[in-house]
């Protein structure tokens, strides 16, 4: 299976870049499934139902959230009835929405997508390691029919590199990929861990990199240099770089075959994996 | 001027990889100056005088520290008499050692190297923005003879991507480069900011990436998944990836001309900037 | 039932003061049960089996721990077989020991003691609100025979006043008392909340208050004023103040009737509740 | 000199209680100077010019702020011209307002009041220890005419008990009193340190204690127990407890003679120091 994970989409420029770029990416990279983090899509703060619908229409199969999950209040009733929108699985019991989904791709293969949120330098939450394990035990790789899945993608929304790498190793061999988000900066550490799990610490944001993690830079800089109120932060509006991670998995084992970054447009140096051989995309 | 910044060197495997690789890099990339962070060189925790000497002998011109500055106590008298070893400039007044150095390269050009440490999700310290500005005002780019320098490299040792990007923009146009360290994961966001300052959020570590930020993975994972004591953390010993950033600056203005990552060896995908045209390295 | 909760016992001076004072307190205050936090009893860091035994012999019925639970490794096998020693109930599943105990006093009344640990400004842990609720639902006030208890004492080991007050209100009416520890400073906010639960944000430490939270002051001060290594912290050895909270509960309802601080010895102003009327202590 | 320090005034109920109580306190306790923290006086968030004027008219001589300094924007131009309103002295250079004031009481004695803000578990700031020392070196106890003062009160607005106790010892013998604020809970650890400085970790709030640190309890509790947005926090409106600290100093040496808590009204147990002997209040 060929998966694309897109990092935190920030504001209009990020949405536009994703929606403009995705059809070409789906075709050129023969993608089966696209997962994207939408927690900053609504003017930098949260996600609205309308924008989430636009992402689905634009070719995103599963949208994830994060620490900005509830910045837009009308997403709360929306997520209660939309299984393709995930919030972290380690939110307290009773939180609206789900932290995992088993979806089926165009060729009938089942994929489990899970989101968990880290705790180091973040808000208190229940254990993301335990939450991830619970979800994959419910729908394991190569499990029995009806419960088993062909691939598992875990989105870890977290600040600390140590916590993400630790989760990668904790799940190594039990999932197809552990991909990180939240820092809004792509990391250059894509690798396949010894047990067969693809791993990258952070996908980076889909947004304008002439900014402070996607937000207009002057007030953001001022907040660090002085300790006075500034104007409200808002997304930088320059051309966005679409940042993501492409993973190819072995349908028989669920292990990763390749992992490679994608970066297109905006200020960052571009990179694209080679197109797959024709056979990979069909028959 | 052609500069190389190497990220946190972790343990013996990191030191060996740096020392083995550096002569070739100096030659192939026509490097004028090499700066490296040594805060984890001594078995993951701090830097000893002996190891610092080995780094200098191995071709590193300036060594920086960070939050692990004083893990090895005998570095304290050593730094008091070794100006090529820097600790963060925003430590309290009276702290042993210096946070900046003006050094002269083989062709007589003056370079200011500054290290500051971030505060977000880190220990309390005085303002790194103010400290950096103080240091560059003492020795500005294109300043008067005796005070002016041809290039300025600022090493920001910090956790949060936002704080590093904010410092990059704060110094944009006033320094040649702002390069980050501390997270032990290289970022893929090298760019030249609008004012001419080269920027990359983190250089990544020089260490074994089959690990949790350079340390043996099993106890590190266990510390996240359980809340019980484990064996002491120690550096992973597999082959290291040398991770760094190459910056070329314009001697007349101090602005950056190019910035590009270097990654060699170990588990990460390799990358090297193209060799410079012969004229760039002399005459 | 008449309960005494003693705050974090710090080092030898704290242990000595508790053991010397407790027989008199038990008698004068007609105490039925004594609970004490022992997480700093072993030279400031953790609790050893030997010291825990001494506390039990000295008249403490239940000992609790906290963020220093495992500083002394030999407490781990000890807690596995000693139900009167509690560690926070919201440690991960599988952690040795228990977070709650139902004990029976000399008159046959059942008391539930629970410890939970806060998360604000502390290490990541599972939800203490949910953990506390689980424990009290298993053994509720005025519950059916065999499960119901006459009183419930919840020890919340936490840093932030807001988190402790919130837990107090969350449990108000469902437990007899919520008493806090960990900051090593007694608070002067003892009250009975509207639902009948006695509450005090922090019991304070049993230790020497000419110190920095119980530890020798010079190196502790130096750690704030400079950012250099100091000698290892060790407990201050001056006379300790025994700090605790006395709560009287109604056996029929489990609600609190009175709450009052106890402070004896050392540098702090002394305070003692009035002795109960004779009838309260028996027959 | 006889000083009263009042802890964080929260909302209308806190303001009303302070203004109603202060005339009686000034008279009964023969107070020379009253200092109060106003950072939560404006509906829990910051301080408005109008409310600050009311506090001055009500008998407060110096008002301090804290981490909520700028919640009300119109306090910024106000503080620039009102020296009796202090913000933390360790804000960055260039911040509007002052962190210290030398005032003269009705009998012509000079008093230095300083506010600093802690850093542990709080926002990054410059060193409060160094800032406090700078201010007291500019106007020392028993210094030369024109610079020397008869008493020094340091208000430390901080979260961690350890940081406040460390500052107390750091300044012991150099100031008359170190009194803490910010946690909104009074501590019961008033003492005179060995060098003669009066110390109490926290004065507590002037507000309604049937609350979560002064705010309406239901939404505050819900924020801990769930991770969903709630209604905006607002001050609890029940009767407030006025919480403060009374310190008597020796005019010749600046050392403290006595320290005692004041708590009046609302839900907490009341306490008042004995009235001073008539001679203490004049002639
Ligand atoms: Fe996020
Ligand atoms: Fe984000
Ligand atoms: Fe570091
Ligand atoms: Fe490091
Ligand atoms: Fe503790
Ligand atoms: Fe403790
Ligand atoms: Fe406050
Ligand atoms: Fe505050």
TrEMBL record, chains A, B, C, D:
Binding annotation for Fe cation 2: 39, 67, 157, 182
Membrane-crossing segments per the record: none
Keywords per UniProt: Metal-binding
Pfam families to which the protein is assigned, alphabetical: YmdB
Coiled coil stretches, renumbered: none
Keyword Transmembrane helix part of the UniProt annotation: no
Range of residues in the leader sequence: none
InterPro entries: Metallo-depent_PP-like, YmdB-like
Domain of life (superkingdom): Bacteria
MF (Gene Ontology): 2',3'-cyclic-nucleotide 3'-phosphodiesterase activity; metal ion binding
Statement: the UniProt record of this protein carries the keyword Transferase: no
Protein name (record): YmdB family metallophosphoesterase
Organism of origin: Roseospira marina
């Amino acid at each position: 299976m060929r998966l694309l994970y897109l990092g935190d989409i920030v504001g209009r420029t990020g949405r536009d870049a994703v929606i403009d770029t995705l059809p070409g990416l789906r075709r050129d990279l023969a993608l089966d499934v696209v997962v994207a983090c939408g927690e900053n899509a609504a003017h930098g703060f949260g996600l609205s139902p309308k924008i989430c619908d636009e992402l689905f229409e634009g070719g995103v199969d599963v949208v994830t959230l994060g620490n900005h999950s509830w910045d837009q209040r009308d997403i709360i009733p929306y997520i209660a009835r939309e299984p393709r929108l995930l919030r972290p699985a380690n939110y307290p019991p009773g939180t609206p929405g789900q932290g995992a989904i088993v979806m089926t791709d165009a060729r009938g293969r089942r994929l489990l997508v899970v989101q968990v949120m880290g705790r180091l330098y973040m808000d208190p939450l229940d254990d993301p390691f335990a939450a991830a394990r619970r979800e994959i035990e419910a729908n394991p790789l190569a499990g029995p029919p009806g419960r088993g899945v062909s691939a598992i993608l875990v989105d870890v929304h977290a600040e600390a590199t140590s916590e993400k790498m630790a989760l990668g190793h904790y799940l190594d061999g039990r999932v197809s990929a552990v991909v990180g988000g939240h820092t809004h900066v792509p990391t250059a550490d894509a690798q396949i861990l010894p047990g067969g799990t693809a791993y990258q610490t952070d996908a980076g944001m889909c947004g304008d990199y002439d900014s402070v993690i996607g937000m207009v830079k002057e007030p953001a800089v001022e907040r660090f240099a002085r300790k006075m109120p500034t104007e409200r932060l808002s997304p930088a509006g320059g051309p966005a770089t679409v940042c993501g991670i492409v993973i190819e998995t072995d349908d028989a084992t669920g292990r990763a075959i390749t992992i490679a970054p994608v970066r297109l447009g905006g200020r960052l140096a571009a990179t694209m994996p080679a197109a797959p051989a024709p056979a990979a995309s069909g028959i």
